Amino acid sequence: NAGVTQTPKFRVLKTGQSMTLLCAQDMNHEYMYWYRQDPGMGLRLIHYSVGEGTTAKGEVPDGYNVSRLKKQNFLLGLESAAPSQTSVYFCASSYSLDDGEQYFGPGTRLTVT
Amino acid sequence: AQRVTQPEKLLSVFKGAPVELKCNYSYSGSPELFWYVQYSRQRLQLLLRHISRESIKGFTADLNKGETSFHLKKPFAQEEDSAMYYCAPNTNAGKSTFGDGTTLTVKP
User: Fold this and answer.
1) B97, A45: Cβ pair inside 8 Å?
2) What is the average pLDDT across A86-104?
3) CA 20 to 30 Å from B32, out of A98, B54, B86, B103?
4) How far apart are CA A31 and CA A20, in angstroms?
């Protein structure tokens, strides 16, 4: 099992450009999450999904959109990138309500200039 | 509001010394509590969860409901314990609110 994978690993964008980060998991998990990690601020939840076709806002959703068209994939989109979105983005998944352990991807380092 | 506080951003100890990473939470209900660890250049991974009452890599964490704390402890720190540690209470819907993290450095 590959677990949770993220594409790409690194990306540099110019202000105003758009991009999509892809997260894939092969563990048949229902729940998927997108976080951003900034120095001194820990992990902050951007959006999450409790199942295929569903998404919900997390703590810091502004400037991002997500889609969960297939159970194994969770996409994070930046429509018009801003320097404030420079961060490391982590995707995670978990199996169920009863088992809350989250499995993380390796992260995507995004720089917006 | 649900909140997790890890009061120490940085913690430095010498090898062989005891270490305690503090975590305080403010949650309604009875959340399940986790500690995650991120070693240098690695992804976050679960270290331990309070419900299992396990000791992982010599670490233990005791849930104190009265103080709403879930401090992580190890009696004798090792250099390989140097990492970022996150406390994460888990609410329903499988969501975890992560603390800001504590960077632990174990000096030789």
Assistant:
1) yes
2) 86
3) B103
4) 19
CB A33 within 8 A of CB A93: yes
A42:B46 CB<8 A: no
Give the pLDDT confidence of B38-53 residue by residue, as tens digits: 999 889 999 998 877 7
Can you read off the two tokens belonging to residue A59? 């703590």
**How far apart, in Å, are the Cα atoms of B43 and each of A47, A92, A111, B103?**
19, 10, 19, 15
Q: Which residues of B96-106 are buried (b: 16+ CB within 10 A; e: fewer)?
A: bbbbbbbbbeb
In which band, very low, low, confident or very high, does the pLDDT at A49 lie, cut at 50, 70 and 90? very high
- Provide the 8-state DSSP code for A14: -
| Interfacial A residues in 75-94 facing B (CB < 8 Å) | 90, 92, 94
Query: What mean pLDDT is predicted for residues B79-106?
Result: 86
Distance, CA of A66 to CA of B68 (rounded, Å): 34
B99 touches chain A (CB under 8 A): yes
Of B72, B76, B60, nearest in space to B101 by CA: B72
Spatial separation of the C-alpha atoms in residues A88 and A47, rounded to whole Å? 15
